[in-house]
Structures
1.
Amino acid sequence: MFSLQVIVPPQADPSSVPYRASTLAKRLRALHHTVRLDDDNQHAYDFFLDPKRLTACRLEAERTLNQMEEGSRLSTLREEYLYYRTGRALLYGANLPKQVEHAWSVLQNRGSSVAQREEAKRIVQHALEVAGLSAFPSLISLHDLNLPYSSESSEQCRRAAVDDAVNPYVPFWRERVGQIKSDRPDAVILWIEVDQQVIPSLTLARMLKEAAVSAEIVLAGPFAQFISRALGGSNPWKEWIDTLACGPGLFSGITVQEQPLLAEGTDSPDLWTLEGLPLDRYLGQPPVAVLPLVEDDPFFDGKGDKETIAGLYQRMRALSQRKPTLRFYLSTPLIPEWLCELARLMEADGFRPAWGSLVSYGTWLSAEQAAQLAAAGCEFLHFELKGFLGYPDQHTAKQQMTDSWRNARAAGCSVLLSVVFGHPLSDPRDFEAFVSFLNEHQFAYDRLVRFQLFRLTPGSRFWNDPAAYGIVEIGEAERERDLKRHFPFVSRYGVNSADLYPLAADFIAGLKRRAGDLPTTALKLDDWAFRGEGRSAVSQQANQLPDEGGEAVLQLSPDVEARRFSYPFGTLEQRWRTFLIGQTPWPEAEPLQQSLTYVVYRNDRGKMSVVNSAVFNVIELCRQPVKEAELLAKFPARQAESLRSLLRKWKKEGMVRVYAESAAALSD
């Protein structure tokens, strides 16, 4: 028997429970192995979002910016990007470390509104940007990681794992390396489910080998299986990874000392579990398990049958044993008939968890079906739409879509939508009418959650039979991109997939009509965020207006940060705001010259604006409590009316707080 350690590495969605890793640990224990399980994805968020660490990072950012402003010019685009990233980090304000804990609790709270969650996500994202500055130009974000290296290349993954200057996970893994050296397990199993976990996993494996740890290192999990298939079973990281799991099943191919640990299938329902996971830490409490219809086939996208629905139901029952309040998000789009079969199994068994599901495109949900799903605990239905595809004509599509949404809401299920653009069987020219239809019926659904581009993935049915699905040409594989997950194609309508993003840009702008629709950072948690609007997640202090005859005291809102920059920050914002290292090319431009700029950032709105020196001077005077009359007296009389108008605007927008004189502690 072996001593084993199963680790879930960062950087994955913090709202999705890694139940497969827990199930692996339970299966290994059932074979009398000693197993330790660590969800280091959650630990990484704790590490990067630690208030003391954020405060230290912000102080270092202040020193960096001061040094750069003392210089005569920015000589390279890399320096300019560093200046921009550092300036943005400081605009997020000194209160950011204190705000993070509250923002995380908002994201954990099931009762939080869409507006509250979006504000909280923005705060957490800002904190991760600040925490990642020490590894510039790399960028950490919620469930993502951007380095100057591509995770689509095994060689670039290797280079990223050894580049300590830009790898933010080196300091994070030091404590784990010390623990593994002390415990001396026979093997460490790194369980990866998404591509963002590859580079952090290789970083830990490299550090363990450099520390002369004797444990074998195994890379396993759904994405490890993808790597093995993509590379024809070869292991490009043999100096760090002893075994790259490969096999027909989710848990197959895991070996230690050349002995297979698990040979049997994965369909035993009593082995699915949540044991050993920090269930109170995941976002969206009670926690959410994201379940596909089939576990062992990553490309399964069928409509289901009685056998697969029964297997899904058994997994739900088994996982609920550990956490009865566990919620389920069914991530494989299902037709209403099979959703009702699942509801029938629940009703027959007296099992009524909170759950929601994706719904296949081109389907219709009757009132009777909606009522059956709601009675079985379904809280939302997330309709996947591919334009009008799947319906005989546009008129039928519009009628059946709106009927389905109406029936779902009447039964008590919230209606969420995701739009997939660029399906090879769909003519993009029809999308303009589809977008107009959605806008006309925006009050018929609760939230538009995602806009996705169609991706051609090796191993999918589109890949295996392209002609049947409207694909007339598939791009060639790139030798250096041996882990490429999506391939370019040309549809029967003559559309090149490389052109989908610019084609989609106008549609995205046309669809984002309501606050909360199409969030920039999308988590599985968003599928549960359909509550009504509530108070701001962080800014909760109301103005205390003076009594009649009292004198108003003004003070700048703590949500407002104002700074003076030596370079044109508005232009920097336009140049760098959407830049992602490793994903978008560096701009073809010369570094900007010095130009004094005054910037105001509204943390409660996530908006930046450039102001003139006179307005900035007023802002500076409002940093400390000041009587409105005394503030007006500091400026020439001819400016009094325009200043009053500015102050009225700021009061209305919440940029300044208004107090009764007795409520403010006036400075001398």
Note: Residues 532-542, 545-549, 662-668 have pLDDT under 50 and may be disordered.
2.
Amino acid sequence: MKIRMLIVDDEPVICQGLAQTIPWHSLGVEEVAIAFNGKQALKKMAQQPFDLILTDISMPEMDGLALAEYVVQAYPDTKMIIISGFDNFHYARQALRLGIEDYLLKPVNVDELIGLVKSVTATILERKAQQTSDEEEAVTQLLLHSLFQTPLPKRIEVKQAQWFSAYRLLISEVVGYSALQESLSAEAFAQVAESVKSAVEESCSSHGLKHVSLYGHENELITLCYSDNPDVLSNKQLSNVWQDAMKQSPYPIQTVASSISESFAHCLVEYEQLHQLMDDVRGQSVGLTFEGPARARVAMYPLEFETKLVEAVLTNDASSVEACLHQLIKSLASDGGSLSQLVDLCRKLERTFQQKLQERLPSKSFQEIDLRLQKDIDLRCYNTTSAIEQIFLRDLIDFLGELKEADHSNWVIENIKRYIKKHYQQDLRAAEVAEQHFITPNYFSMLFKKETGQSFSEYLNGLRIQKSSELLLTTTNKVFEIAEYVGYKEYKYFVQVFKKQLGLTPTHYRRLNATEETMKK
């Protein structure tokens, strides 16, 4: 909070001396102006009020006491200290009667003046902080009443014009909110909303922009920026504020802004218009948007994807299903439609797809599958194309399960075995493999053991040892190099597993089984 001080004295040397020789900034005074009489002081006050005035008494045109009497009436929050060369009890008594903070005699004791100013500025800052808090609470109540029809105290309604003459409404969403909910711990996810709100509020405050922020939904931050000066709310100014906010926010945010308005009577309409604007731009990018793109309604999805998906499901090819769906979503997104349009088209495709599967295989129960995509989807949470793609993919996985309900377990395990063979050189973990195939770790362990007769680690070790034994006989690579190649970080563990499975150490195995040609190498 800035404190502005005005020094008033008809002697320029004293004005300049006081303004320049005392380190006012260290006392919390960030701006110091001067005037040479009471009338000049009032002109400056009319342009922009001051928090503190240091004034002489004896000045031409308007003396210090006359100035004090006017300021006390017109600017009751402004504090005044009189500095005078008159050691006159009458002047001092009159000044104190007017409510002046103190009366100092010239020549001024600098330490006394500094101590007095420090005390007065502390009082000013305390008052400003309380006023700001009261104002923000009142504006928040006004915003809640305008948007959600909460009760509004009469005193707030009456004082609305005192706080601002112009405002802009903004709503922000964390991009990829549903993915964060799945990837973060419950404790970390609970901090997402507050961290984004803090980033927005800190950026607004650092730019000197008055504001209040509140959540209208778990992923909808509503921010009201207001001022008596509409220029402060220009697109350029808001862009600077939000650029800093996005740098401070630990998560990407997408924000839409209303135009500059003067009456809260329009606030609800603007809020509804912002919802439409957010619907137009959601999932497209991050940043601040003032105007939505002109969109043509995307009426239909590419028909070839319908055929490809049906074929992929009927052949139990999960990888083809996933690849085909990804291409479909990518194609729909590139057409320029909104996320809600994309969801509508995916729902239409899914219903058609479900019907065709049922027609081809009437003995199955595709129509009874509880499809996630057909339910209400909160796009403020699932606000990216990838989130919608994941919902659709889980429905397609259910179609695959229904297609071969009896053989579903075998089909899942066969897919997992193919996955392991492809990635066995990596640091594979059972929980991660289970997640990749949309089953729980416990179910995965039970199912894998049932279908293969081995645990996941036994199967993985068997595959790695088989590959390493081949490499021992067909290459001249060192044993530790082969161990690393097939996925073992610890050489001793590799030797231990190898000997357990084949009864020999890798080196002994190579010596006994190497061909003459390999021996020559």
Note: Residues 494 and 500 are 10 Å apart (CA to CA).
3.
Amino acid sequence: MVTVQVPVRVDDDIPPSADGTTLTNTATMTADNATDKQSSAAVTLSVPSTLGATTTKSITPDGGPNVVGTETTATVTGTNSSNVPVTSMVISDPVLDDDGNPPAAGNPFTYLEVNRLADTDPITWPEGADTVQVRAYDSSTGEWVDGPVVDNPGNPSLPASVDPGDITGVQLIFTSTSEPAIPAGATGGVSVVLDQKTLVPDDEIPLTITNFADTTVTDADGDEARSDPASATYRIPANEIDVTAGKSFDPSVVHAGDPSTVTLKGGNASDDPLDSLTVTEPASAALNPLAAGGGMTFTQMGSGDPTDPATSGIVWPDSATSATITYSCAGTPAAPLTTTTANTLPAPPADCDPVTGFSVTFTGSINPGAEATVPFVVTTDTDQTLEESYHLNMVRVTGQRGANTGDDTAIAVLKTIADRIAVDVGKRVYPSSIPAYPGQIVTVQLSGRLLPFPDSTVDAQQIIVQDPQDFAGDEWYDSFNPQAVTATPVPACSTLTVQYTSDAGGTWADVPGMEAIHGATIYNGVIPDDIGAAADGIRFVYTADPAGADCSGVSRPGRP
């Protein structure tokens, strides 16, 4: 004997009308050497009616400034999640107390006033509904007031006799007065425009208003089911707006005439989004290094290749949707320039010369913690009377939410250094002591190098290492005669000439055979006896080769 078991399941969406239906299943067995056999089994369906509803709720935008009249739109939808049609669907906002009235405590309409139904598509009609009505709870009388009943596909209205400021509850009633009724899965909804009807006291903000709504469905027998509440929130932020400002120069110390990249930063340090974030450079006309005589000139917006926006280094704050920049041209504002291309800013107008400042406003819902970065390049002036000059510069960042603003400033200093050369010299004598007999040999090591930036700001064409520094009172050459130059480096792209003086530096002459020794090399040479005996000073003159090929024409800092 063979037994075959086949599990079966009733469809999930089988209607309650199938309740009590008997389903008969007949199986047939066939064999090649036997007569066919059949057998049947019956099952009676039990499909009870189940009433249910679901609700969704949203508020857009989900927050706004503490300003009377600020608008938002609340949208509530209710769905018949029963497995049977219903004759009515009632959406209540807020969820009513057991007595059928809106709650007094925590009522969202304490601060948000029911202004009107939405201007566009205020109603979503559920399938099967043929009428709709809006009811409003009048807190001044403690009564529900019915609005007019409107046939599908019209739009209902709030009851005209109720002052919007007194409405603390709203119901939307869809009904079906004929077959077919509102079927399972049908969804209806309403969008209501709310506005802030009174200022929230300072000690209550920031304030988050939580709004609950639910849906009740009723069938032809008068049985009803109520959905779980759905909620949405609306936040009224504090009036105080916190922003951060930042500014830096890179490099912060330059040779007069060289460029530097200025990086401006502005951030939202508030707990709530901003409507706009503005970066103003400079913050004060009194501290404007871009103005005439200020010491620097605007070169370009962005820090990278002007033809490649991807290298600009410009960063918009998170959720900004546009940026508007207004350049100041020789102190006069130009026409604003707007872009919606993220992380870019328009270049100055062609006739904006010189650029003496600018203001960038980022708009959108600027998220908490969002930060803007605005780099630009300046070129410092070549002419300055002081050897070192300090250029103080301030940026201002302003955040705005509704009518409220907050700002912050940051200061950075750029140091510019005029042309100057600084050298480092050294001298060693060894051995440090010798017997007092003629013919003793002493080795003197002299060193000299051009100090790097910022000690030196320009390259040198010639470096002279001289001994002694001061001839007055120097007795070294009274006791010692220079005999030879040994193991002396001559860098590439330069020449060395060794010179001597016999009149305390009044005149200098080349040591024969030690003229224009070309590097790179290590030089060794003997000084003639007559010159060594006459010399009361010696010097090493390093001269850079003319520019060309691999030579720059100068001696770089750090080299002899």
Note: The chain has two helices and 36 strands.
4.
Amino acid sequence: MGELSSPRDRDRVGVVVPYDFALDREMWRWVPERVTLHVTRTPFVATPADAAQARLISDPAMVRRAARDVLTPGPAVVAYSCTSGSFVGGVAGEAALRDAVLAAGAPAAVTTAGSLVAACAELGVTRLAVATPYVDDLTGLLADFLAGSGVETVARHGLGLLGHIWTTSPEQVAAAVRAADHPDAQAVFVSCTNLPTYDAIAALERELGKPVLTANQVTMWAALRAAGHSAVGPGQTLVDGPSVPPVLRVVDAAAPGRTDPGPADLDPVVLATAAGPGPAPLLKVRVRLPDESGALARLTAAVAEVGGNILSLSVHGRDAGTVVDEMLVGGGVTADRLSRVIRRRLRGSGPDTVQVTPADPHELVDGPTRALDLVAAARGRDGLFDGLAALLHADEVGTGPVAAGMHVLELTAPAGPPVLAARDWAPFTVTERARGEAFLRAGAATPPLRATVLLPGGAELVAEPAAGEETAELDVLLRTCLAGEPAVDWTAADLAGLLAPVAGPALLLRTAAGDLVGVAALLGTDTGVPEPVVVLHPCLRGAGVGRWLRGRLGSGVAA
């Protein structure tokens, strides 16, 4: 038993095939580059390819011995890859084969027939058409197995072959699929791992408008999934995900009571997508790539493969060896399918390498224009933080602590403490750091704005942001306001904090002669929510000036 003690390797898959299996190269085509197949064959038997042969090559004791032959490399799963051998004994026989593989010491086991049932469940298929190379009685046993598994066979077509099945051409396979298809079938299954099908699946799915499942495909799909991998199969629904082709929706263009055809009736057909949730109209794709020749070409090839349209592309520096490419993709492709195809094209990248999420159409505006719009809309600290969050696609922006487990970007602010941006969906890049700090500088450099206030008696007051140097004037105003009250002491630092709090500069209200008669500021609190504070000269109380000043806090001074 010493040879079975090596660590299980998720990049290794064991496969037991019949003695006459001849399509090794085809089976490998569903396998990602990093994964290795370790294949062994059952012993030779001199019998035609009928039900008797299927029973001989699926004897559980023999399958158990064969499974042991592939365990030394330490595969994560062992597949029994034979359709007839795994359905000829019915549902119980398929379960016995999996048990035999597990009893041999495999950490996980799949069979072709069991994988077919799993694939039907994955796609929601309960009505199936089947195309086989078999004689009729063996095809009938496949239908019996499917019925026992909850899948109805609505149509079947067999080629009647008793040997040399691997010599069947892809064209003959395609013809058999067309002959087997039925309007009530939700999918078509091509039985037998000795039939070549890889190159025919995508074209047949486009032609028939439904999934086409094949023996080697479902076996590799299930085995690789058990090992934590995705199979490779461009345009194959089971592997690549369903596409959402356009459909025609007829629109009744006639108005109520209208009897005569007019110009509006000449174009009654409108192109629309299929009903249901459908794909997002616009997707944001964020991919970490090695900074090397050809990396971007593989990414754009993946988008082209699924029919996507790259509407914008930007490159973010990340570190010395990698970059992050961010693009907006249209074209009706689903996020799940696009993500899978990109991962395949990038050869099994890790889960944090490829991120595909719905995008805001406003992001189609070029980066510099968007940044300028956000700066123009920012007023006060809160407005600036909201704009920064939109620019960086951050979940939180502030100066306080952030939730644990989030990606955090610390930005140097022109004044005050560092600003922290946080999000949980992706790390920040050095390019985003540069954008964020430039945004903060631009927001801080917004020129002071002034406003004029006319009092009911005709007197004119001017409001403007504080420069932070008006501590002596503020001291006089406070002592005037508190005249007759118990003495209160304050320091120059207290006054400076009132003039220049973290939330943004205070607003000063002056007479036409320049005398300071009012101050309004947003001061920090223990709750983190700034509190408005207004100080007015006694002569202005009751004139509504305090409400006016509060309305300007947090949004700047507007003319």
Note: The radius of gyration is 35 Å.
